[in-house]
User: Fold this.
Amino acid sequence: MSMKHLNGPALGAAGILLFLVTWEAIPRLGLVNERYLPPASLVMAKFFGYLFQPGFWGSVAHTMTAWTLGLAISIIAASVLGLLIGSSLFLRRATRSTIEFLRPIPSVALIPLAVLLFGLKIESSLLLIVYASFWQVLLQVLSGVADVDPVADNTARSYGLGRMARIRYVVWPTTLPYLITGIRLASAVALILAITAELVIGTPGLGQQIALTQSGGAVAEMYALIVATGLIGVLINTVVRLVEKRVLTWHTSVRGEATT
Amino acid sequence: MRYPKRVLHFLGLPVLLIALWWVLTLGATNFFVPKPLELLQTFWAVWAGERFLTDFVPSVLRLLVGLGLTILLGVVFGVLIGSVRWLRSLTEPMLEFFRAIPPPVLVPLLMLLVGINDQMKIIVIISGAIWPVLLNTIEGVRAVDPVLSDTFRTYSITGFVRLRHLVLPGASPQIMTGVRQSTSIALILMVISEMFGSSSGLGFTIVLFQRAFAIPEMWSGIVVLGLLGLALSVISKSIENRLLKWYSGLKEVQHAS
Assistant:
């Protein structure tokens, strides 16, 4: 059977299988030393072993707690500030240069500061996560508020809708898709920074375990933990996309993904 | 808007914030927060001298080489995978998985596989930052205007000309979105790879300052990284504006109609 007759999911499964077989073969054939790249079967065995260890789930819980808290703080702060700044032309113009200056500062530059201020506490992770994901949400909310249709807004005014009612019925529906896009971007960034803080600073979580296995020479375990972080990433992406579809059923057909 | 008003809008808040910082640290001796003037002096003393050549330049070179290769490889493989349907289906789940791995975990992995050297840092940047460019290129190539695509086919335009005049321009808005995301990941990875195993570079230096409790020096390093991030964002935005002029024009026309 030629490749063309297979359908998408079957080919995708074949792709995963091909990847695993290649991974298994490279160390087995001695192309790369087994000490640095353990075969896939060994790593998978370690991974399934982890699933029955409470310590592993403890690390996952640490990472996910920092992720959830950091993301929640960023979303709330950025939505409030975004709606506030966005609804005033003066504030929008006055804050623009400051936002454009602060936004590109890489969150990892704050690592030494976090270590000094909070040491190994969860606040260190939160500082990095919030700084990185706050801007993602804020910028999206700002463009969302700026995108409000002036005709719709004026119509609402003519019908005597008050400020709160206009926010509820005009600004909010326009901003929501942008907010969701911001949350989708921020949720990926937040995971990166949660793991980074654990890896580099040593706050408890999966990243810290990866650093420990690496320095302890437990290579197969390290690979297993990296696979675990990837699976968490896939899970987060999937859940966020589902929520996005759910919330924006009325809207997805209108807005393409290209603008993100 | 009149010119002076614009300047006021641009400078107002930053000046206000710096003034606030200056006033608040005037009499205080908070160990963690240096005074503005002190920071400026330290910045000049630390980064204008030898460190500029031994730490700043190597870091930036690694970043630029890594980012250049990232974009090149991402676009080449993206065009390839995006134009062959079975290849796309075959690789899609694996690519989704690779993209979801937080890139910093690749640092300890590649330290093992490659060792601690410049190549490791560049490979870390490529292997962590390539996914946004790659996946956005695939999406962009796949979503090329079907009418244009059919027109090219009718005139039997194929190969390089098709690539140059249809596929790459059509996918360029998506590619640039990917490049922007990849750039910020590359900067993160440059810093982390230097924090982990290195004896030079920006990441190494600011951690060194922090461990020595040299607080103003540490802040000056943070400022350097901030300025680097700002410069990258300004450069990529101006390239994007130039490359995608036709696209924003097209969008305006579509919005107006």
